[in-house]
Amino acid sequence: MKKDVRLFKLMTNEDVIAEVIEQNDFSITVKNCIQIMMMPAKTGGKKEVNFGFVPFPYYSQNTESSYIIMKQALVFYTDNIESDFLEQYNQIFNPIITPSSKIILK
Known about the structure:
single chain, mainly beta, SH3 type barrels
């Protein structure tokens, strides 16, 4: 069964990636939540931006089996995740890493 992993932009301006367990008109139940953080990086005198993942919420005892219920009214939007972010997310939460591209045999 394919997991429903999505990006959430919260009204508090946080970008969160999570696996959706259940959704209705009032709430979204999710698990395996991480927040995307922008971090400045200096390389070769250029200012660049890197991204990192931190636990969400910060002070939670959130585990892989924990669920978080978010109110729909506090979610600004939800979207599909860019493939590089999804691959990194899957490396964190999936014990088995699957290749992102197909292997061609001749």
